[in-house]
Amino acid sequence: MKEARNTNASQNRAYLTVKFTEIIYAGRTSRALPNGGRDAYVIRVWVRNSGRTPAKWFKAKCRLSFVKYDVNMNSPQVVATHEEETKAWVGMAADEDVSFMLDGMDYFNVISQAIDDAVDGSSVVLECEISYQTMFDKKAQMWATKTAARAERLADYATDYRQSRIHDTPRPDPLKMPFSPVEVEPPGVA
Question: Where is composition skewed (Basic and acidic residues) in this entry (predicted)?
Fold first, then answer.
């Protein structure tokens, strides 16, 4: 009887995962960044509940890093990073997609440095840990993922967006960050 109840709970519980992430141009900031620029960017994270029941709550711990490699594409080194935990949101329904934004000067600084310093093999990496609780679990569940975009693609997106403003042409689509196996080492490890 207990096994049947456990099987039923696992089949019906909430399963939260990151569906995809994207970087979006968000306009001009009122104060200059360390690089002198004023372009602001936000990161939208889409979370999906692919389970059959709602989650009671969920929150995310996210770290954005600008990573460079040596000439042989080895030894990843974190040049700039920012990490923070989001607030907890009331849960999400089964089979529902929800997005949240990561923004603020610390995120702008990492993205701006990646745009200014884009070289072959450098990437912007977003690591997310989604914590959530289901009606069947007493303790929180966790799911982690990593998405990345080549810094050159980010620099091209920034250029295309600036050009679209100057020439009053359609804005480029947000830069999608595909799932990535990119290894990120903490600063000082080489």
Answer: 163-174
